[in-house]
Amino acid sequence: MAHNVKVILNGAVCIAEVQYFARLVARAAENADDNDGEDFDALGHLQFDDITLVTLYSHPHPHLLEQSYGVLASCTKLGEASLQVVKISAIQAVVAMVPHCPVINGVAEDRYFLVEKTGMEIAHFGSEENDDE
Length: 133
Known about the structure:
This protein is mainly beta and 133 residues long. It has one helix and nine strands. A seven-stranded antiparallel beta sheet has the order 4-9-6-1-2-3-5, with no helix packed on it. The longest helix is centred in the middle third of the chain and has 6 residues, at 62-67.
């Protein structure tokens, strides 16, 4: 099941594991001050916010990242202490976090490395654009 994502949090790119998706229903902001007894169950008075609850992965191990020339982004799970609520629109991509067990300073560690699938932007890589179409 694909449940790892690349998200933008506070302007920074982070890798996270999705725990839950939800749609929140709230009174629309333009109607928040209206208390004149209207029926707030009407759809025009409600707004929907699609969110996800995620736990974060650590930043990549700096030595492994440097030694691999920026290829191996090896992270650990930060667990429940890193729980975040994220708007769905902040999700940039679905990614894979593959388990691996590198030996760092003589100690084997349970870690995960990042695998991103190339998107559609590379579909025409190396081909010339035809402006006539």
